[in-house]
Amino acid sequence: MDKLLFSIRKAMQQSSDLPFSVYSSVLEQQLHNVPISKPLLIVVLSGDKQLGGDNKINCPADHFIFLSDSPAINMRNIPKAKLYFALLIEFDYQDFEELPIGEQPDKDYFADKIPVPLRQSLQQFVECSSWANQQILSLRKREILALLYHLGYQQVAMMRSKNKVSHRLHELFTKSGFKDLSTTAICEKLAMSESTLRRKLKLEGSSVQSIKDRSRMSLALHLLQTSVEPIGLIAEQCGYHSQSRFTDKFKAHFGLTPRELRKTRMNE
């Protein structure tokens, strides 16, 4: 078994609170409009990953892809030898602070075969994840970004997401459990006036409700991909009082129901 894959599985057995996610399936997954809330490193260890529409980006096993934040992207996770398995690491705005700022790249992603130094760095990150505190984990994330930059992937410096209001709203809704927050309460937490909030969201081409809906779907997808919690409980965690309404919203957004997605992760 691949050493990195083995270490990931061992870490998952030791703790459920990890600084990375694992998406795996035994059947093909086709997902539409997947929100990328933060810059994201995806490392495919088994199977193939395809992204985009007609001009598909292919990321086979032993390859990685680094994505900038994006409101929606289509994805296919394709098992090979009965398994799709990928490591996902999200990065925050401050993780990029030590990287130089260059010109904006033509593409909002880059991909390649996993270099040996990157594999070793990921191995160290995974191995320390079960015991390291937040400060150490943040340093490890910065090391991964710096390593990518010095390995020749200078475009990683421009994958940083701007410190947008939409990102702050995403964090606010997620941490509040999607409770109904008044505009006044939101403005107080963001320390800005209502007119400033509306103006900044207009410049970002977004709205409070669209960000809330996207944040709900992002959490729902994450929980369905990484846990075995009942779908009804996941619906509640995403702020839905009705499981049927949650199912309708999920299918309208991703193109399949929560139950259909969950079946792709199970050996029937």
UniProtKB/TrEMBL annotation:
Cross-referenced SMART domains: HTH_ARAC
UniProt keyword terms in alphabetical order: DNA-binding, Transcription, Transcription regulation
Gene Ontology MF term list: DNA-binding transcription factor activity; transcription cis-regulatory region binding
Presence of keyword Cell wall biogenesis/degradation: no
Pfam family, one: HTH_18
Keyword Lipid metabolism recorded: no
One CC-aspect GO term: cytosol
Domain HTH araC/xylS-type as annotated: residue spans: 163-264
Signal peptide segment: none
UniProt name for this protein: Transcriptional regulator
Organism: Agarivorans albus MKT 106
Taxonomic path: Bacteria, Pseudomonadati, Pseudomonadota, Gammaproteobacteria, Alteromonadales
